[in-house]
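Troubleshooting log. The previous structure file for this entry was overwritten by mistake, so regenerating from the original sequence record. Sequence copied from the archived sheet and checked twice against the printout by T.R.
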Amino acid sequence: MGKTKTKIIDDSQPEAKKKKTSAKQKLDVGNEKIDEEVRDLKVETPTSNIQPPKPTSKVKHPTSKKVRSKKYQEISKDLDRSKSYPVSEAVDMVKKLSYSKFNGSLEAHIITAQTGVRGLISLPFASGRKIRVLAFGKNAPSSGADIVGDDSTLTQIEKGQINFDIIVTTPEWMAKLTKVAKILGPRGLMPNPKNGTITNDLKKALEGFQGGKTEFKTESKSPIIHLALGKLNQPTEELSANVRTLLQTLGKSKILKVSLAPTMGPSVKLDFSSF
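Regenerated output below.
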Protein backbone atom coordinates (compact mmCIF):
# COMPACT_ATOMS: atom_id res chain seq x y z
CA MET A 1 0.00 0.00 0.00
CA GLY A 2 1.17 3.48 -0.75
CA LYS A 3 1.52 6.24 1.84
CA THR A 4 -1.53 8.31 2.44
CA LYS A 5 -0.89 11.92 1.51
CA THR A 6 -1.95 14.36 4.12
CA LYS A 7 -2.69 17.88 3.08
CA ILE A 8 -1.63 20.45 5.63
CA ILE A 9 -3.86 23.45 5.67
CA ASP A 10 -2.15 26.62 7.01
CA ASP A 11 -4.93 28.93 8.09
CA SER A 12 -2.64 31.40 9.89
CA GLN A 13 -2.42 33.72 6.90
CA PRO A 14 -6.19 34.23 6.49
CA GLU A 15 -6.46 34.88 10.18
CA ALA A 16 -3.83 37.58 9.91
CA LYS A 17 -5.63 39.13 7.01
CA LYS A 18 -8.86 38.94 8.90
CA LYS A 19 -7.32 40.64 11.91
CA LYS A 20 -5.78 43.33 9.67
CA THR A 21 -9.07 43.96 7.95
CA SER A 22 -10.79 44.18 11.30
CA ALA A 23 -8.28 46.74 12.54
CA LYS A 24 -8.75 48.86 9.43
CA GLN A 25 -12.48 48.76 9.82
CA LYS A 26 -12.14 49.86 13.42
CA LEU A 27 -9.91 52.69 12.31
CA ASP A 28 -12.42 53.77 9.68
CA VAL A 29 -15.23 53.59 12.19
CA GLY A 30 -13.16 55.59 14.63
CA ASN A 31 -12.43 58.24 12.00
CA GLU A 32 -16.10 58.45 11.12
CA LYS A 33 -16.96 58.99 14.76
CA ILE A 34 -14.30 61.68 15.04
CA ASP A 35 -15.61 63.37 11.89
CA GLU A 36 -19.14 63.26 13.27
CA GLU A 37 -17.95 64.77 16.54
CA VAL A 38 -16.11 67.53 14.68
CA ARG A 39 -19.17 68.22 12.53
CA ASP A 40 -21.36 68.30 15.60
CA LEU A 41 -18.89 70.62 17.27
CA LYS A 42 -18.93 72.98 14.30
CA VAL A 43 -22.70 72.99 14.23
CA GLU A 44 -23.02 73.62 17.92
CA THR A 45 -20.42 76.43 17.96
CA PRO A 46 -22.35 79.76 17.95
CA THR A 47 -21.08 82.13 15.29
CA SER A 48 -23.53 84.99 15.75
CA ASN A 49 -22.00 86.02 19.08
CA ILE A 50 -18.41 86.06 17.82
CA GLN A 51 -17.21 89.63 17.33
CA PRO A 52 -13.89 90.77 15.92
CA PRO A 53 -11.47 92.23 18.47
CA LYS A 54 -11.71 95.96 18.95
CA PRO A 55 -8.72 97.97 17.77
CA THR A 56 -6.54 99.22 20.59
CA SER A 57 -5.93 102.60 18.96
CA LYS A 58 -7.51 104.71 16.29
CA VAL A 59 -5.54 104.85 13.07
CA LYS A 60 -5.93 108.02 11.05
CA HIS A 61 -5.90 107.74 7.33
CA PRO A 62 -2.79 109.46 5.96
CA THR A 63 -4.82 111.31 3.33
CA SER A 64 -7.49 112.61 5.72
CA LYS A 65 -7.93 116.38 5.61
CA LYS A 66 -9.16 118.81 8.23
CA VAL A 67 -12.86 119.46 7.80
CA ARG A 68 -13.59 123.17 7.51
CA SER A 69 -16.88 124.88 8.34
CA LYS A 70 -19.27 126.03 5.64
CA LYS A 71 -18.49 129.68 6.48
CA TYR A 72 -14.77 129.07 6.07
CA GLN A 73 -15.25 127.30 2.75
CA GLU A 74 -17.62 129.97 1.44
CA ILE A 75 -15.44 132.93 2.33
CA SER A 76 -12.20 131.36 1.04
CA LYS A 77 -13.49 130.01 -2.28
CA ASP A 78 -12.12 132.99 -4.26
CA LEU A 79 -8.81 133.19 -2.38
CA ASP A 80 -5.73 132.49 -4.49
CA ARG A 81 -3.54 130.61 -2.01
CA SER A 82 -0.60 130.52 -4.38
CA LYS A 83 -0.34 134.32 -4.50
CA SER A 84 1.69 136.49 -2.12
CA TYR A 85 0.34 139.97 -1.38
CA PRO A 86 2.08 143.25 -0.46
CA VAL A 87 1.56 144.39 3.14
CA SER A 88 -1.34 146.83 2.71
CA GLU A 89 -3.14 144.57 0.24
CA ALA A 90 -2.66 141.57 2.52
CA VAL A 91 -4.14 143.46 5.50
CA ASP A 92 -7.19 144.47 3.44
CA MET A 93 -7.62 140.84 2.34
CA VAL A 94 -7.50 139.63 5.95
CA LYS A 95 -10.23 142.10 6.92
CA LYS A 96 -12.47 140.79 4.13
CA LEU A 97 -11.80 137.15 5.03
CA SER A 98 -12.69 137.52 8.70
CA TYR A 99 -16.09 135.99 9.55
CA SER A 100 -16.11 136.33 13.35
CA LYS A 101 -19.05 138.18 14.94
CA PHE A 102 -16.65 139.98 17.27
CA ASN A 103 -13.81 142.36 16.46
CA GLY A 104 -11.00 139.92 15.71
CA SER A 105 -7.26 140.45 15.72
CA LEU A 106 -4.72 140.60 12.93
CA GLU A 107 -2.41 137.65 13.55
CA ALA A 108 1.05 137.09 12.09
CA HIS A 109 2.34 133.55 11.67
CA ILE A 110 6.05 133.53 10.84
CA ILE A 111 8.21 130.52 10.01
CA THR A 112 11.78 131.31 11.01
CA ALA A 113 15.09 129.80 9.96
CA GLN A 114 15.66 128.35 13.44
CA THR A 115 14.16 127.98 16.90
CA GLY A 116 15.17 130.14 19.84
CA VAL A 117 14.34 133.46 18.13
CA ARG A 118 12.96 135.91 20.69
CA GLY A 119 12.98 139.58 21.54
CA LEU A 120 10.91 142.65 22.32
CA ILE A 121 9.07 144.91 19.93
CA SER A 122 7.25 148.20 20.44
CA LEU A 123 4.39 148.33 17.96
CA PRO A 124 3.69 151.89 16.80
CA PHE A 125 -0.07 151.33 16.83
CA ALA A 126 -0.62 148.71 19.47
CA SER A 127 -4.19 147.90 20.39
CA GLY A 128 -5.66 144.99 22.24
CA ARG A 129 -6.09 143.57 25.72
CA LYS A 130 -4.11 145.08 28.55
CA ILE A 131 -1.02 143.17 29.61
CA ARG A 132 -1.00 142.16 33.28
CA VAL A 133 2.46 142.75 34.74
CA LEU A 134 3.80 141.11 37.91
CA ALA A 135 6.75 142.97 39.46
CA PHE A 136 9.27 141.80 42.08
CA GLY A 137 11.65 144.24 43.74
CA LYS A 138 12.14 147.02 46.26
CA ASN A 139 10.41 149.64 44.09
CA ALA A 140 7.67 147.33 42.79
CA PRO A 141 4.82 149.06 44.73
CA SER A 142 5.57 152.40 43.03
CA SER A 143 6.35 150.97 39.57
CA GLY A 144 2.76 150.87 38.35
CA ALA A 145 2.64 147.06 38.19
CA ASP A 146 -0.71 145.31 38.20
CA ILE A 147 0.55 142.82 40.80
CA VAL A 148 3.31 143.39 43.35
CA GLY A 149 5.11 140.12 44.04
CA ASP A 150 6.31 138.76 47.37
CA ASP A 151 7.00 135.35 48.95
CA SER A 152 3.30 134.49 49.04
CA THR A 153 3.14 135.13 45.29
CA LEU A 154 5.84 132.51 44.75
CA THR A 155 3.76 130.04 46.78
CA GLN A 156 0.78 130.72 44.51
CA ILE A 157 2.93 130.16 41.43
CA GLU A 158 4.12 126.83 42.87
CA LYS A 159 0.46 125.81 43.07
CA GLY A 160 -0.02 126.72 39.40
CA GLN A 161 -1.91 129.97 39.98
CA ILE A 162 -0.87 132.13 37.01
CA ASN A 163 -2.85 135.39 36.81
CA PHE A 164 -0.32 137.55 34.91
CA ASP A 165 1.14 137.84 31.42
CA ILE A 166 4.70 138.93 32.15
CA ILE A 167 7.12 139.18 35.09
CA VAL A 168 9.47 142.11 35.60
CA THR A 169 12.00 141.82 38.42
CA THR A 170 15.14 143.30 39.88
CA PRO A 171 18.28 141.09 39.84
CA GLU A 172 18.24 140.26 43.57
CA TRP A 173 14.90 138.44 43.22
CA MET A 174 16.18 136.00 40.59
CA ALA A 175 17.56 133.61 43.23
CA LYS A 176 14.03 133.13 44.59
CA LEU A 177 12.42 132.93 41.15
CA THR A 178 14.67 130.04 40.15
CA LYS A 179 12.64 127.89 42.58
CA VAL A 180 9.62 128.21 40.27
CA ALA A 181 11.60 128.13 37.03
CA LYS A 182 10.14 124.70 36.13
CA ILE A 183 6.67 126.28 36.16
CA LEU A 184 7.50 129.62 34.55
CA GLY A 185 9.98 128.35 31.96
CA PRO A 186 7.64 126.16 29.86
CA ARG A 187 5.12 129.02 29.80
CA GLY A 188 7.73 131.51 28.60
CA LEU A 189 7.29 133.64 31.73
CA MET A 190 10.74 133.33 33.27
CA PRO A 191 12.43 136.77 33.39
CA ASN A 192 15.31 137.23 30.99
CA PRO A 193 17.74 140.14 30.58
CA LYS A 194 17.50 139.81 26.77
CA ASN A 195 13.85 140.85 26.75
CA GLY A 196 14.22 143.57 29.38
CA THR A 197 12.35 141.79 32.16
CA ILE A 198 15.34 141.83 34.54
CA THR A 199 16.16 145.45 35.36
CA ASN A 200 16.87 147.86 38.17
CA ASP A 201 14.44 150.42 36.70
CA LEU A 202 11.09 148.66 37.09
CA LYS A 203 9.03 151.78 36.33
CA LYS A 204 10.69 152.38 32.95
CA ALA A 205 10.35 148.71 31.99
CA LEU A 206 6.65 148.70 32.86
CA GLU A 207 6.00 151.87 30.88
CA GLY A 208 7.46 150.13 27.84
CA PHE A 209 5.32 147.01 28.20
CA GLN A 210 2.15 148.87 28.99
CA GLY A 211 2.77 151.29 26.12
CA GLY A 212 2.73 148.55 23.46
CA LYS A 213 6.00 146.72 23.95
CA THR A 214 5.42 143.06 23.12
CA GLU A 215 7.58 139.96 23.38
CA PHE A 216 7.89 137.67 20.39
CA LYS A 217 9.44 134.19 20.43
CA THR A 218 9.38 130.92 18.58
CA GLU A 219 7.59 127.91 19.99
CA SER A 220 9.69 125.66 22.23
CA LYS A 221 10.03 122.89 19.62
CA SER A 222 9.04 124.57 16.35
CA PRO A 223 10.57 127.49 14.39
CA ILE A 224 7.34 129.48 14.23
CA ILE A 225 6.17 132.71 15.81
CA HIS A 226 2.51 133.59 16.45
CA LEU A 227 1.84 137.23 17.32
CA ALA A 228 -1.22 139.50 17.36
CA LEU A 229 -0.52 142.87 15.71
CA GLY A 230 -3.68 144.80 16.46
CA LYS A 231 -7.45 144.78 15.99
CA LEU A 232 -9.13 144.45 12.60
CA ASN A 233 -11.14 147.63 13.12
CA GLN A 234 -7.93 149.67 13.14
CA PRO A 235 -7.04 151.54 9.92
CA THR A 236 -5.11 149.51 7.36
CA GLU A 237 -2.24 152.02 7.56
CA GLU A 238 -1.78 151.38 11.30
CA LEU A 239 -1.86 147.60 10.98
CA SER A 240 0.52 147.73 8.02
CA ALA A 241 2.95 149.80 10.07
CA ASN A 242 2.83 147.18 12.84
CA VAL A 243 3.58 144.42 10.33
CA ARG A 244 6.55 146.31 8.89
CA THR A 245 7.93 147.04 12.37
CA LEU A 246 7.80 143.35 13.28
CA LEU A 247 9.51 142.18 10.10
CA GLN A 248 12.21 144.84 10.34
CA THR A 249 12.84 143.92 13.99
CA LEU A 250 13.18 140.22 13.13
CA GLY A 251 15.38 140.79 10.10
CA LYS A 252 14.92 139.26 6.67
CA SER A 253 17.63 136.64 7.18
CA LYS A 254 15.64 134.98 9.99
CA ILE A 255 12.34 134.78 8.07
CA LEU A 256 11.35 131.96 5.73
CA LYS A 257 7.61 132.55 5.36
CA VAL A 258 4.97 134.97 6.66
CA SER A 259 1.20 134.61 6.70
CA LEU A 260 -1.40 137.06 7.99
CA ALA A 261 -4.76 135.85 9.25
CA PRO A 262 -7.81 137.02 11.20
CA THR A 263 -8.83 135.36 14.46
CA MET A 264 -11.42 133.42 12.46
CA GLY A 265 -10.77 133.01 8.76
CA PRO A 266 -8.20 131.80 6.21
CA SER A 267 -4.65 133.10 6.06
CA VAL A 268 -3.00 135.21 3.34
CA LYS A 269 0.60 134.82 2.18
CA LEU A 270 2.67 137.95 2.63
CA ASP A 271 5.24 139.13 0.10
CA PHE A 272 8.11 140.37 2.27
CA SER A 273 10.71 140.52 -0.50
CA SER A 274 10.81 144.33 -0.25
CA PHE A 275 11.96 144.27 3.38
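The CA atoms of residues 24 and 30 lie 10 Å apart. Archived copy saved in two places this time.
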